[in-house]
């Protein structure tokens, strides 16, 4: 087996593994499969952590994960698929960041790993064992990589920025309520 063949096989394994995990997480959010809570339950969770409106946020995250993951696994539209999945994982990481890095403490380790792998695949490309290769890379051009990351980065920055503002306002309101309770005593 040549080095080039090993690279293609390695990229296929990375795409299948990462894409499959992302697609399963998206299916949990969208359809309630695999023990997930579907749009309703995920929407309620999204609201509770500052992503509003909750159902729209659940739909966006679910589509980015399920769609991006499926496309990554297939090796189709790899720049857009990887960027979308990386953006969804950046949003997830922002929720887990206050818990530190490690997953066992509820940290962002898992989301960061999935996001970085998806981003790496978007940049590297899918390899020859992919639909992109079979279709002559019509939806996997070099110029698409920076465009996909710019569009996803902008959307993610807006969504996460709005969430951070909401969480700060909520915490400030809670602190003011505690202060008023202390004054009343």
TrEMBL record:
InterPro entries, alphabetized: DoxX, DoxX-like_oxidoreductase
Major place of residence: membrane
Segments crossing the lipid bilayer: 71-95, 143-162
Keyword tags: Cell membrane, Membrane, Transmembrane, Transmembrane helix
Membrane topology, from the record: Multi-pass membrane protein
Keyword check for Transmembrane helix: yes
PANTHER family: INNER MEMBRANE PROTEIN YPHA-RELATED, OXIDOREDUCTASE CATD-RELATED
Protein's name in the database: DoxX family membrane protein
Source organism: Streptomyces griseosporeus
């Amino acid at each position: 087996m040549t080095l080039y063949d090993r690279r293609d096989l390695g990229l296929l394994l990375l795409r299948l593994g990462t894409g499959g995990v992302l697609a399963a997480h998206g299916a949990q959010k969208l359809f309630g499969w695999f023990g997930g809570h579907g749009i309703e339950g995920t929407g309620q969770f999204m609201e509770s952590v500052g992503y509003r409106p909750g159902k729209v946020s659940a739909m966006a995250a679910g589509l980015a994960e399920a769609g991006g993951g499926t496309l990554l696994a297939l090796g189709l539209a790899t720049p857009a698929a990887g960027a979308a999945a990386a953006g969804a994982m950046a949003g997830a990481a922002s929720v887990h960041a206050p818990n530190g890095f490690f997953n066992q403490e509820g940290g962002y380790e898992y989301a960061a790993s999935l996001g970085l792998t998806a981003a790496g695949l978007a940049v590297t490309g899918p390899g020859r064992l992919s639909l992109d290769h079979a279709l002559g890379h019509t939806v996997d051009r070099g110029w698409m990589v920076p465009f996909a990351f710019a569009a996803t980065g902008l959307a993610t920055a807006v969504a996460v920025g709005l969430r951070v503002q909401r969480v700060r306002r909520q915490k400030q309101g809670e602190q003011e309520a505690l202060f008023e309770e202390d004054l009343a005593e």
